[in-house]
Write a structure and sequence with these properties.
alpha+beta, about 25% strand, 7-stranded antiparallel sheet, homotetramer, about 30% helix
């Protein structure tokens, strides 16, 4: 029930010979769909020639059998799913980004956000560059293309470009002869690779996508590492010295529970969060209930540690999708009811421990607490699998603005009161290293300690507000024709 | 992960005055979406004048804010969701069925199947009737219209028509001045009603839809009962003596866990099924895993009774929708991987008890067992929450044909071997009354004891096969334009 | 530039063996597209089995290669194009009408309007019939189906049904083994047939459609004649004694100039109209200009008879299609400019004779006169190829209501003044027999002498007004998804 | 019936205050639709802020009332219609091109082709530029943007950029405060301007678009002239010394007959072509017939000069649009029949003079000659309003490749034989100056004398062939969702 969005998932495959590479990317993107639902794309390299199809919509909608058939065979391919933070489902922002330059063709997919996007873009524009999108990924494409003019190889161009980037990037670049995967020196966003039984190499944002195509997991891409895949195999190079600080929010919310990131199972991390909460905030209760989907694993952990029965206390309507339009103001109170229903027989007359992954504005969890109480819960004790959100993220997580973050304005006691809970416990920041036992993680959204220097983004101008209105109109009037709107 | 489909969900609302009645029906149908995903429709009665909008697609796709706004206000409305067994998503089969006859206008929604459809239709055609669809519901509409010619009131016409029907029907009829709900004398399909705080009456296939619109549950409609709602209140009449035999498969698979049907919580029935399986087929194991979504509750029950830990051992891809196209033959083995992934850390090295609701062909469950074994499960003990399927259903459940039902050809021991399980236990038929403690239920698909006389349907002819091909084509080439195809 | 609409065009083909019959119907309907642009459909008979595809849109839009391929081969086929007078482009009203009755399957296409539709429908409803559309064609289908129950053959059923019809009907019926074409005893609407070199018989509303499929014209279907095509050839029967009164407006406006109807070339009839106008209303002028497209031929005739040069004085924008939305009120004056432009060099400083086919409200022709004057025409002498419209049509022509017909309220002199013309001449009614030299024609819209008895239609009720609103909305928001809307 | 395509039409409006500027551009583009039917776009400048909507489709399809309403008001706007020579209806190639650079925002529309596109592009890429399309217009946008970095004003940047261009360009640039129109020093493509009664200035490819918005024609933009429109009025500057050589093919085929270009009426030029043909190639005949639409005016001229009656001998199906799919091979012979039909009564038994604008491959005209002969024409004497095509065009006309041009391989006598004509006369090159009495025109496609130096384009590579296949697929499967396809 979270309102936080990440922006991307990436997937790539490199085979020794021409074959169906679109199929695996399709299944891989299906497995990564939770990382972005606005638009998606696949680029295929067929004997040195690159072609691409991208469109607004879910993977299964966009890549119909006819489209997949026409993309044809190849020896390499990359794909991307994207959550659109600006301009709605504008397909112009879709990836792969295709570059068709006299010095080389290239397809690029990117997950992450740059902390120095503003400076890089300004410098490129001073040299005459024209940008077609507002995305950081176009900056990366420009830098690689410019470095390519003076580099002996595409990997060297990628390496040089990478050195100018600051922030989060998990990249896959397809040149006519190579597939190159890079993870930034802080390893903010996940990236791993594996191999299919037939020898094809596969790179993906999360290991669940390797499972989906029947590939065995080899290892995570290291911080600052660049992997170069060509017909003969894979080489490991480095674009910069890494001191990894992976994003902890991947474990709390973003990633699929069946993924293993940097050696840590997401499912187990969430169970541990539940156990740690049970230790930190024990309570006498009759049942432990998780907010689906991300709160379920932690609820199992809490139940186990606290010796309180777990039960399915909330049922989620699995048909609520992108098409769900919020009800009119008069029925606003009602809206959580459409997405969730309390299971009366599981909670009536009981003291309930309710587990959720995080709290942003507090509005949704407040409605869930009401739902349980109306269904007869005697008490609702809220336990949250993360510390309070206090700071913005500059590495690709789209959290709300500070004025909307409830924890910036209220103490936990006040929040409990506001949302109607009988008690509230956040996972203490000091326990995060037990939840995700890595040497370092980025938890800047909780403690404000950013692993890189930051330059603030300019606020959106009048034009972009206009654009927003136009985009919304179009989504509304016509779900099928998704026109390209430009500033 | 079941391949069994029911055909419909119905919802109706009757208010004392003109207001937004489309909103409640929209939310009600959203809550009933699991009962049918092919097409849906809403008919509104505004001051005696009936109008309707219906279309192929999910509720959220079809009823955009613009469509809802234009349907406008009214004092009564009915809605329907449908799973299309014939002709795919052909919108001609969508409901409400609208009748615009000189003797009266009417909108009708229907859940269920008639056992005497063939005879009734033949008799009507002999009198010159022309049918536009192959659906039983059109027969019902015809009978009511014909009885209306000689009946003093619409409820009398409905009552006379109902007496000629044999089989399952949960009906809602909207006349210009009344809303009439009928449940057949065997009460095969569920139907209940409730009331909102503002006095509006609401009728729905399942109680979860009452929750979705904030209505309090009053009671289930009784076997053979007809409720007549008009401006002033509700009257209860009877269309026939009832000896209720509700469908037990509603509890096993169809209904939402948060619904309560004929006084029995679906969630609790499933937990009981798990406990009964633990008693009937105990096994030494390390973890209990349910096949999502319908096997989860039973897995919790089994875990509790057997004192074995429950865990999330399988993760379902929540984006697999109607758009998912099965992979080409070469990758067939792979397909369950796209929908489900084993959670390695939860099952590796463990003896797993795997719970599912039922087995049809055995293909899917066989792949799930493989998935778990590949993820390192040492043993997989399969437990099924229902007895083996042995007989067809004539009351609205679309089970496979007998030649495809694995239990018709193999013993449980053979099935265990075929699907790769280390043991297999079906819920014994003798325990069904403990799972669903009602005086009688229809369990004909397990024991062949049909509560009514049956007339077999003729097999599909050449034409309908053609039609099928054409329908499929159209789904394929154009998801947006859903043309009407006729025989 | 006429605002008058006819409702249909029909086409059928019967071959000796299975082959591509969809192709010819497709090309035939393309040639008849001017008779209806709202929706269209084709039904194929393949070895006794009938299937159909129909949809809102132009022939070229609806019948994509994929749809045509899937309709497949057959030995007979019929098609229809329709102008929607009620309910906009509602595909429910599209034809062929398919009947799937135990006593026989049938596809039916129909051009024309019944004068006794109201009585027939009421009688059928009294016997329990349910109508799904408001169209006369469904009444015809019902009557044939009912007669079929007691007739020895389909042609006998058609004959008996035809005897109950009063008014205009050019019908083609496809049974599993025969194609039957019928033209009403007054021969109001055109219908002709021909033969391809390979022996296949072709029936069409106009001879231009025979040309389009390379068939040689044999003859017009006679008044009251029924042609029965089966594998072995064609038989001629009669459904009633005919005293033909073909619609004269087919020659004035509806039909394509390259068609020949009842032995009269439409092009020549229009040239004659021009010549007759030159005799009846001579004037001193410098150039003769026709309003495209239907005024061009008459302008050539006038120019020739009056020895005044013909020139292209008005250029029509050929891209103005169904998508053209009238400008906002402020620009209303402007709208004819978008559709037509005056050719300054052809008219500046000249005395212009302007020829149009007819005048309905007078608004459009007034704007055209202004256009010419603004382009420098010194005088504009308006000549109209028909007498003034004074009476409604009950046989399939959708003229405006009497209160909107300018000729019902004003004398020709007044009209000339209103539209800004320097003089105005209507083709005298007494000359119509010279324009179309047939023994009798129906010219009831000019003189009110209806060849049959008439029963007035009831006015539209509140509900249909609602429907109208809803339809318009949908056209507006989504040109691609054309949902079925029902009362 | 020509197979030659031009690539663009442009339109712009500049008002003194904020008002509806989208309406006039919409009507202007409607009037210019014949110059490009693949995609279209409009950019609006509202108080310094630019926004744009562009999409594949006809003007009337793309700019629905909702889209127009949301584009909103402004004080300036530009629009574009485009015929897509590469990549089909790929919306990425649509214009206006929007540039959002730190040094300035800009919208640009362009008609024409550069003769030095290859060199300019290579030089820009060497400096690191990335191109998103294959269009010359993007090169122009890049050059202006680069010059803008070092220019004191946008008009100076446009002037400097223009000096680097060689070839045909009629440009309109919208900056936040100015609208700038430029016509290249050879004045290859037309461009004119006018003024509405309310003082708003209007620029358009052809004068017919001024008529469509009620603006008075002021004059053509001069060769090498740049007009700068701002709130206060218009200034005339020059980007280079002009020696105008306007394209003569605009008069022969491209332009609308109601346009006046560089002082010459297109309609009159065509009539003169007919008269010149009558003088050069007189013949005894009974009727003169023009191939619609572009041959009609010349046929009137021929008829007049030769004193032979003109008649409508060919009727064009006005519904054949972009949706028309050529028939399968077996019916190939048939295809002209769908688009054209001979008017038997006008040609049977007669000696026909047939006038067309030009001959490319000869296939179409051959079929038209057959059509007339099958309709009974005794003789067909073909007269062509232009000399034979012998050379490619580098200034924006998409003629076929030389190996397909029938005149490159055959003498007029041979061609007459091939197409079945009894005689053939091309307008002699030496008469072109009488048809279009301007000091100089570009007639390089006839005589190979190019007004500028030329650099040949590289041939299309394997990739672009692939792309073509993919585009076609998409047009086929989904007319509504027009996805962006990239290399």
């Amino acid at each position: 029930m979270n309102e936080i969005h990440e922006e991307c998932g990436v997937f790539g495959i490199a085979c020794g010979s021409t074959q169906d590479v679109v199929g695996p990317v399709y299944y891989g993107l299906y497995a990564l769909q939770h990382r972005g639902q606005e638009n998606c794309g696949i680029a295929v390299c067929d004997d040195g020639c690159l072609h691409c199809y991208k469109q607004a919509g879910l993977v299964g909608e966009v890549f119909s059998p006819a489209v997949r058939a026409q993309l044809g065979q190849g020896n390499m391919a990359v794909g991307h799913v994207r959550y659109g933070t600006t301009g709605g489902s504008d397909v112009r922002n879709a990836q792969p980004i295709m570059v068709n330059h006299k010095n080389g063709r290239m397809a690029l997919v990117h997950n992450g956000n740059l902390a120095n996007a503003g400076q890089l873009r300004a410098k490129l524009e001073e040299r005459g560059a024209i940008f077609h999108t507002a995305s950081d990924s176009e900056i990366v494409a420009y830098l690689i293309t410019q470095e390519r003019l003076k580099s002996p190889s595409i990997e060297e161009a990628v390496r040089r470009a990478a050195r100018r980037l600051r922030g989060a990037y998990s990249l896959i670049v397809l040149s006519p002869t190579k597939m190159i995967a890079v993870r930034d020196p802080h390893a903010f966003r996940p990236l791993c690779f594996g191999r299919r039984a037939d020898g094809a190499f596969v790179v993906a944002s999360e290991s669940c996508a390797l499972d989906a195509v029947g590939a065995s997991f080899i290892r995570d891409v290291k911080a600052g590492e660049m992997l170069v895949f060509d017909g003969s195999g894979v080489r490991s190079l480095f674009v910069g010295g890494g001191r990894p600080t992976p994003c902890i929010f991947e474990y709390i919310y973003f990633a699929r529970p069946d993924s293993v990131i940097d050696g840590i199972s997401v499912h187990e991390a969430r169970r541990r969060a539940g156990r740690l909460l049970a230790e930190a905030y024990p309570v006498k209760a009759d049942v432990v209930v998780g907010v689906p989907d991300s709160g379920i694993d932690a609820a199992l952990g809490y139940a186990e540690a606290a010796h309180i029965p777990f039960d399915t206390g909330l049922v989620k309507n699995k048909y609520i999708g992108r098409t769900f339009i919020e009800p009119a103001a008069a029925q606003r109170q009602n809206d959580v009811r459409i997405k969730l229903n309390a299971l009366r027989s599981a909670v009536a007359g009981k003291r309930v421990v309710l587990i959720d992954d995080s709290i942003v504005r507090g509005t949704t969890i407040g409605k869930i607490v009401s739902l349980l109480k109306e269904a007869g819960a005697r008490q609702v004790h809220l336990r949250i699998c993360s510390p309070p959100f206090l700071f913005p993220c500059y590495y690709g997580t789209d959290i709300d603005s500070r004025e909307n973050l409830i924890a910036c304005k209220h103490s936990p006691e006040e929040i409990a009161k506001i949302v109607g809970a009988d008690s509230l416990g956040y996972l203490p920041g000091g326990k995060l290293h037990k939840m995700v036992p890595l040497p370092r993680t980025c938890r800047a959204c909780f403690d404000g300690k950013y692993p890189t220097r930051i330059c603030e983004n300019a606020s959106k101008d009048k034009f972009e507000q206009k654009l927003g209105v136009l985009s919304r109109l179009q989504e509304d009037t016509s779900a099928t024709a998704r026109p390209s709107i430009q500033e």
